[in-house]
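HUMAN: Would you supply a protein with fold tokens?

ASSISTANT:
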Amino acid sequence: MTDLIGGQIPILFDVLTGAAGTIRSGAVRALGVTTKSRSLSFPEVPTLAESGLPDYETYTWNAVFGPAGMPRAVVDYLSQELRQVVAEPEVQERLKELSANPIGSTPEELAAQVKSEISRWEPVINGAGLKQQ
């Protein structure tokens, strides 16, 4: 971002949550979002699909993970507490200010998300010849 603002690079792909403040300040201009639909925080910014790259979609997401073998009772307790925090209006508002779409999910929903992401990106990773280290 520093190099973009300073004119050392002409374009940057960055996560919207990190770039939102810089965009709002006018230091940089958002050209498009990579998600399937426009950002609620920046509804004036088109998607890349709208800008001529049909079917283009990529996004970032965050989750809380624990160590393998964590007792199910602990998993359930932490999951419930975290979903309650994410549901708090102040937390929802702050995350939306950062251009995040707060969801809060169960362990099973998160596992399905991880499985879906692995299926989606595995061909890209294998096609690039990348190996896990």
Notes: The first helix runs from residue 2 to 5. The two ends are 29 Å apart (CA to CA).
